[in-house]
Amino acid sequence: MKGMRSVGILATGSYTPEKVLTNADLEKMVETSDEWIVTRTGIRERRISSEEQASSDLAYEAAKKALAKANISADQLDMIIVATVTPDNMFPSTACLLQEKLGATKAAALDVSAACTGFLYGIAVGSQFIANGMYRYVLVIGVETLSKITNYEDRNTCVLFGDGAGAALLGPVADGFGFLAFELGADGSGGPLLSLPAGGSRIPASRESVEQKLHYISMAGSEVFKFAVRVMNTATETVLEKAGLAKEQIDLLVPHQANLRIIDSAIKRFGLSEEKVVVNLDRYGNMSSASIPVALDEALAEGRLKEGDNVVLVGFGGGLTWGATLLRWSTREA
Ligand code: UT7
């Protein structure tokens, strides 16, 4: 962007709850098998928050780690953006709850609702404020406690989801580094394919809505699957094109972790070797907006990223929504 400051990710942090729910545990809860879950999804276990833990609690743990790594105190933050479909409350926003927990007294705070694409929407929004010079530090968190809205009697959905939080501190970086391109998209006509039907203003909470189990995730799996394969590939191609890079120049792909078969389609399409693709869904399942930042944080901890690498983050989900970004990696603040 000409005349704009370059923006990158200065530090990341993540947190996942201690409690592990394995495929063997699920075999005792619904008619399923470890074999079905592993071959159809690649998932082996997921983390589940405790009864006392809400999304802002998980977000707080991830946020503290990101701030500590960047050596930034909470009162230096200009803005907090929380991407989630499992906010603590309808309002106040989870970002406001987190602002208070962190003591980020000067930070503006808002939630972004774009389901599994939420983290990408969040960094796309947050980075604008730094690019145009209005703010210096924006903290973006993808956090979900999907276990709280999952029906553990429905085998079509309960084997897929897990809880976790990932944070990224955005700030100015040297020209030529940081976010080189963004691609965001939405197709509201596909909204009913993946939704939480009740609890909003369309079907407010009532005895009937609870009895009909309308406060749980509802998903048309195979339709979402086809959409996911398509948009993951096109969104990645679009950011490559916008940044003027070829697929051979991708050093690391961090895809949304919904299903290993969806990730495999991208691996084939872009001719990527396994070391160039981050996969952690075997340990966490689908954590919606938390999947990408947790995967990125783990890749960094494993030393899989170095200054100057071309990194693609790509996601898709309810809305329907999709998004991708291409960054030239640098955590050096400018
Ligand atoms: O992050 C947001 C985006 N979400 C996604 O990207 C999810 C995308 N969708 C998927 O990952 C896959 O569609 C699923 C993993 C959800 C399902 O896999 P599938 O290969 O598309 O299976 P299917 O829905 O076509 O179902 C095949 C069969 C059905 O049985 P019938 O009707 O053929 O007899 C299901 O009832 O598998 C059955 N099934 C199960 N069997 C054992 C569904 N869930 C289970 C289960 N265990 N847990």
General description of the model:
With 334 residues, this protein is an alpha/beta fold. The protein has 2 domains: 7-172, Peroxisomal Thiolase, Chain A, domain 1, CATH 3.40.47.10; 179-328, Thiolase/Chalcone synthase (Peroxisomal Thiolase, Chain A, domain 1). Helices cover 33% and strands 23% of the residues. It contains 11 helices and 13 strands. It has a 5-stranded mixed β-sheet, sandwiched between helices. Helix 3 (55-70) packs across helix 4 (94-102). The mean pLDDT is 97. Residues 32, 36-37, 40-41, 116, 155-156, 159, 221-222, 224-225, 228, 258-259, 286, 288, 317 line the site of oxa(dethia)-CoA (UT7).
Q: Indicate the mean pLDDT.
A: 97
Overall outline = globular
- Strand count, sense and closure of the main sheet? 5 strands, mixed
Helix content: 25-40%
CATH superfamily label of the largest domain: Thiolase/Chalcone synthase
Query: For the terminal residues, how far apart are their CA atoms?
Result: 16 Å
What's the SSE blueprint?
Elements: E1 7-15, E2 19-22, H1 23-27, H2 34-41, E3 45-48, H3 55-70, E4 79-83, H4 94-102, E5 108-112, H5 118-131, E6 138-145, H6 155-158, E7 163-172, E8 178-186, E9 194-195, H7 207-211, E10 218-219, H8 221-243, E11 252-255, H9 260-269, H10 281-284, H11 291-301, E12 310-317, E13 321-328
Helix pairs in contact: 3-4, 8-9
Describe the structure using short key phrases.
single chain; 334 residues; Peroxisomal Thiolase, Chain A, domain 1; 11 helices; 33% helix; binds oxa(dethia)-CoA
Task: Briefly say what this structure is.
By secondary structure, this protein is an alpha/beta fold.
